[in-house]
Design a protein that fits this description.
- It is a single chain.
- The protein has about 250 residues and is of the alpha+beta class.
- The protein has one domain: Ribonuclease T2-like (Ribonuclease Rh, Chain A, Alpha-Beta Complex), CATH 3.90.730.10.
- Helices cover about 30% and strands about 15% of the residues.
- The protein contains 6 helices and 6 strands; from the N terminus they run H-E-E-H-H-H-H-H-E-E-E-E.
- Strands 1, 2, 3, 4, 5 and 6 form a 6-stranded mixed β-sheet that branches.
- Bound molecules: 2-acetamido-2-deoxy-beta-D-glucopyranose (NAG) (3 copies).
- The site of one 2-acetamido-2-deoxy-beta-D-glucopyranose has 3 residues, from loops.
Length: about 250
């Protein structure tokens, strides 16, 4: 089949028109949209390693080392209310070189995947949405920001101050945690719990909602989707479990 000159002419004209109209769009977007992000809040998520393996699917090996499990670690930094980021913006080891020792320490995985695989997943799912603000527009900035926030919003220190210590014997009231965290995290944070085989709720994760300038108080929509992590309930005690290296899927027998 051959294209007639008329068809070619039409194609030529329409692509020319297309160029014209896309240029118009571009002008418009420069004026109206170029400085906007599709998200307003960032959810900074820190996790308590000792209870992480309770709900870990058995297809993943759980790897709990005493040393890594002593402190709160980073789970992620998530631009909120957004589903799809930019999955083809890949993370490469060379993006992170100088940060790796700190990331290994503060953002480790407790599965038998590699730390890099964990960071890669977080980057592709969440990090690539951060590119619309200058302070997050590269892997180095994104991972560096999370490390900075982990120091700024230091849960270990907040709990230590009021002597909240890991224990299988003593449970805490939700209000005890909230009172300890409010001075640090402001009014917009959520404690998440996982339920163990005996129906007890175990503190596993703390999410704090931040503005893009990393200060607290941003009002985010509640996330959609199902998770084994649920908001901790005030009606019952909450266990803050110590690490159990021998049987990390059952931290409190
Ligand atoms: C991780 O652990 C799972 C479950 O124990 C196992 O099936 C899988 O082969 C392990 N993968 C690696 C890379 O070690
Ligand atoms: C880990 O947590 C303990 C208190 O639970 C604290 O003394 C220590 O400074 C923390 N380490 C880091 C690196 O934050
Ligand atoms: C951060 O941004 C929020 C919302 O735009 C603003 O209300 C707040 O004052 C800012 N905080 C700082 C420290 O600039």
């Amino acid at each position: 089949m051959s294209l007639s000159w008329a068809t070619l002419g039409f194609l030529y004209t329409s692509s020319f028109l297309y160029l014209l109209s896309s240029e118009k769009l571009w002008e418009k977007s420069e004026k109206d949209y170029s400085r906007l992000c599709p998200w307003e809040c960032l959810i900074f998520v820190q996790m308590w390693p000792s209870s992480f393996c309770v709900s870990l699917p058995s297809k993943y090996g759980c790897v709990m080392s005493e040393k890594k499990a002593k402190n709160w670690t980073i789970h992620g930094l998530w631009p909120s209310d957004i589903q799809k980021c930019c999955p083809y913006w890949h993370l490469f080891p060379s993006d992170l070189t100088n940060l790796v020792p700190e990331l290994n320490h503060h953002w480790p995985t407790f599965t038998n995947l590699s730390n890099f695989q964990f960071w890669e997943k977080e980057w592709e799912k969440h990090g690539t949405c951060g590119g619309c603000i200058e302070t997050l527009n590269s892997p180095k900035k994104f991972f560096g920001a999370a490390l900075f926030l982990h120091t700024k919003y230091n849960i270990d220190r907040a709990f230590e101050k009021v002597e909240i210590i890991p224990s299988c014997r003593q449970s805490y009231q939700l209000s005890t945690f909230v009172d300890a965290l409010e001075p640090l995290l402001g009014p917009r944070f959520q404690l998440q719990c996982v339920t163990d085989g005996q129906g007890r709720q175990l503190l596993v994760q703390i999410k704090v909602s931040l503005f893009s300038n990393f200060s607290t108080g941003c009002v985010a929509e509640p996330p959609v989707g199902i998770s084994p992590y649920q908001p901790c309930r005030a009606q019952r005690g909450i266990l803050y479990v110590p690490p159990n290296q021998k049987d990390p899927r059952h931290p409190c027998p």
